C-alpha cells in the first residue's frame, strides 16, 4: 500500500459555498472573476453579495433543499455565481455540457430528476426542448436575458430573505457531474459538500495560489477538473480567475498576454498547441510561472518541448477522476526535477494500491504495473440510482477501482500507462495506446494522433493509428508513419494500420473519444 507523504488534512465539513467563499470579505475589492473576452470583472465582495441575493431569489422561486438544479452554460462570470447560489439555496447542481443535444440533456435531466435549469440565452432553445422531453422541470432561468424567463441579473434586486438551509456536508450532494460516457452510459456522480471541500484542502499544499495569482480558465467549469482547479480552488485562496467560454488558440494566447496570467491548468491538446503551433511565437507569455496538465495522459517529451519553448519549469501533471472529486496525485508546483512523465505523488490523506490485472487480489510492488486503486476522503458517495455500478467501482473496504493502469517508483511518483479497457491485446501482448500516441506526436509531420485496437482478418487485435497531418506535411504517407513507429518500438507494439483524419475527436476534458473512432473503423 502506498500512503501520502503529506500530513493529513482535517475533513472540511462546510457547505461548498462557505468552504470557497468564506474569506471573500478578507479579499474584498480584489478581482475574483474576469471575463477574458470583454474584461467584465466581479470582485470578491460582489461575488459573495451577488450569489447570496440570487440564492434568496431562487429560494423565493421555490428551490428547496434536495432539489437538483441543472447548470447549462459555457464558462462565464455568471457560472460560479449561479453554482454557489444554488448550493446556498440547498440544491445539488448537475453541470451540463453546453454542446449537449436536447436528447442528451433530457437524459441527464430525467436521470437526475432536475426541477430547475439555469442556462444562457444562446442555449435556451436546447434547454427548452430538453425540458419538454424530460418533463418535471419547473422553471428555466437565464444568466443574461431572454423574453419570458427570469434572469439572474434581475434576481440581484431580490428583497427576499437569504435562505437559511441546514446542510449536512457529510451526506448532502453539492455537485452531480456526469461521467464522460467514453466507456459506458453516463452516470451521475454524487459528490458531497465535504468530499469536494476536503479535496480542495488536500490540494492546497501542492498547488498553492493566492492574491496576485491569475489563473486562466479555458477548460470548462461543467467538468470536474475545471470546477475544482479553475473555479473552486483559486476562489478559495483569493486568486483571480480569468475565464474564456471556449478554446480558440489566438484568443487563449491573447488572454495570457493581456491579463498577465501566472498559472495554466490545461489538458494535453493545449500543451501540444503551446509546444508546436507557430502562433505561440507572436505573443508575450512571459508572465507564466507554471503549467499543469491533467484529464488525459501527457507524453514526457511533449511536456519537455512545451517547457523548453516557453522557458518554464517542467510541465507538471495531475491525476484524478470525476469519482474522486477529482484529485489524488499532483506534481507539486516548484518540485525539484520530478521524473519525466509522472502524474505526481499522492496528495494528503490519500492511499493507493496497485493490483495485478490477472489476479485482482494481489498487490504489486515498486515498478510493477497494475490497476490503480484509491482510498481517501475524496472518494465519491456513489453513482446516483445505480447501487450495482457503485459496488462495482468501490469495494467493501472503500477502495475505488480506477480502471487505470500504472506503477509507482521508489519515491512514490505515479506513472499512468493506460486504461484497463483501452489496452490493446496483440497476440497476448499488452499494447498501451497512450505510448504509441506519444511517440507519433514526436514526428514533425504529425499534428495530432489517436490509437485504438481493431481486429484484422485473422482475428488479432492490432494498433490502428488515426493521424492528423501538419499543414506542411500533406505528402506524409501511411508507410512512412508505420516505419517511424517500427524503428522505435518492440515488434508487437508496431502500428499496423493508419487512417488520416482532419481532427481527433475529444471530450471537453481533452480525453480522446476512442468510441467514436471505433465506430468509424
Automatic annotation (TrEMBL):
Per the record, the domain of life is Bacteria
UniProt keywords (A-Z) are: ATP-binding, Ligase, Nucleotide-binding
Gene3D superfamilies associated with the record: 3.30.300.30, N-terminal domain of ligase-like
Q: Name one GO molecular function term.
A: CoA-ligase activity
Domain AMP-dependent synthetase/ligase, chain residue ranges per copy: 23-384
What is an example of a Pfam family matching this protein?
AMP-binding
What family name appears in the similarity comment? Belongs to the ATP-dependent AMP-binding enzyme family.
- Name recorded for this polypeptide: 4-coumarate--CoA ligase family protein
Organism whose genome encodes this protein:
Streptomyces luteolifulvus
Amino acid at each position: 500500500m502506498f500512503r501520502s507523504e503529506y500530513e493529513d488534512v482535517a475533513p472540511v465539513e462546510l457547505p461548498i459555498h462557505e468552504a470557497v467563499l468564506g474569506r471573500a470579505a478578507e479579499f474584498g475589492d480584489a478581482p475574483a472573476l474576469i471575463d477574458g473576452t470583454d474584461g467584465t470583472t466581479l470582485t470578491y465582495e460582489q461575488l459573495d453579495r451577488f450569489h447570496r441575493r440570487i440564492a434568496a431569489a431562487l429560494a423565493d422561486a421555490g428551490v428547496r433543499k434536495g432539489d437538483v438544479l441543472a447548470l447549462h452554460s459555457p464558462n462565464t462570470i455568471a457560472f460560479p455565481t449561479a453554482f454557489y447560489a444554488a448550493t446556498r439555496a440547498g440544491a445539488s447542481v448537475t453541470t451540463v455540457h453546453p454542446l449537449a443535444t436536447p436528447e442528451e440533456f433530457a437524459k441527464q435531466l430525467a436521470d437526475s430528476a432536475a426541477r430547475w435549469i439555469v442556462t444562457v440565452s444562446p442555449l435556451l432553445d436546447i434547454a427548452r426542448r430538453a425540458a419538454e422531453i424530460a418533463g418535471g422541470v419547473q422553471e428555466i432561468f437565464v444568466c443574461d436575458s431572454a423574453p419570458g424567463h427570469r434572469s439572474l441579473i434581475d434576481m440581484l434586486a431580490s428583497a427576499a430573505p437569504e435562505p437559511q438551509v441546514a446542510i449536512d456536508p457529510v451526506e448532502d450532494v453539492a455537485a452531480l457531474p456526469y461521467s464522460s460516457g467514453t466507456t459506458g452510459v453516463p452516470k451521475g456522480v454524487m459528490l458531497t459538500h465535504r468530499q469536494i471541500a476536503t479535496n480542495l484542502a488536500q490540494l492546497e499544499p501542492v498547488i498553492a495560489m493566492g492574491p496576485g495569482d491569475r489563473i486562466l480558465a479555458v477548460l470548462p467549469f461543467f467538468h470536474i477538473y475545471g470546477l475544482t482547479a479553475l473555479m473552486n480552488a483559486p476562489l478559495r485562496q483569493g486568486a483571480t480567475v480569468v475565464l474564456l467560454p471556449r478554446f480558440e488558440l489566438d484568443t487563449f494566447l491573447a488572454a495570457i498576454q493581456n491579463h498577465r496570467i501566472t498559472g495554466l491548468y490545461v489538458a494535453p491538446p493545449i500543451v501540444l498547441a503551446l509546444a508546436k503551433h507557430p502562433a505561440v511565437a507572436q505573443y508575450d507569455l512571459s508572465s507564466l510561472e507554471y503549467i499543469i496538465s491533467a484529464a488525459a495522459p501527457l507524453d514526457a517529451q511533449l511536456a519537455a518541448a512545451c517547457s523548453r519553448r516557453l522557458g518554464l519549469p517542467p510541465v507538471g501533471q495531475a491525476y484524478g477522476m470525476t469519482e474522486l472529486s477529482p484529485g489524488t496525485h499532483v506534481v507539486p508546483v516548484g518540485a525539484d526535477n520530478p521524473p519525466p512523465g509522472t502524474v505526481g505523488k499522492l496528495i494528503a490523506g490519500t492511499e493507493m494500491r496497485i493490483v495485478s490485472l490477472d489476479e485482482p487480489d494481489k498487490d504489486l510492488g515498486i515498478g510493477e504495473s497494475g490497476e490503480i486503486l484509491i482510498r481517501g476522503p475524496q472518494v465519491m458517495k456513489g453513482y446516483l440510482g445505480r447501487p450495482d455500478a457503485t459496488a462495482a467501482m468501490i469495494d467493501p473496504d472503500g477502495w475505488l477501482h480506477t480502471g487505470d493502469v500504472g506503477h509507482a517508483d521508489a519515491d512514490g511518483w505515479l506513472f499512468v500507462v493506460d486504461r484497463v479497457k483501452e489496452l490493446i491485446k496483440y497476440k497476448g501482448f499488452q499494447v498501451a495506446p497512450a505510448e504509441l500516441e506519444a511517440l507519433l506526436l514526436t514526428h514533425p509531420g504529425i499534428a495530432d494522433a489517436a490509437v485504438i485496437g481493431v481486429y484484422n482478418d485473422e482475428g488479432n487485435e492490432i494498433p490502428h493509428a488515426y493521424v492528423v497531418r501538419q499543414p506542411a506535411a500533406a505528402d506524409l504517407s501511411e508507410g512512412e508513419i508505420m516505419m517511424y513507429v517500427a524503428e522505435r518500438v518492440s515488434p508487437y507494439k508496431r502500428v499496423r494500420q493508419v487512417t488520416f483524419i482532419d481532427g481527433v475527436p475529444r471530450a471537453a476534458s481533452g480525453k480522446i473519444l476512442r468510441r467514436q473512432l471505433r465506430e468509424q473503423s
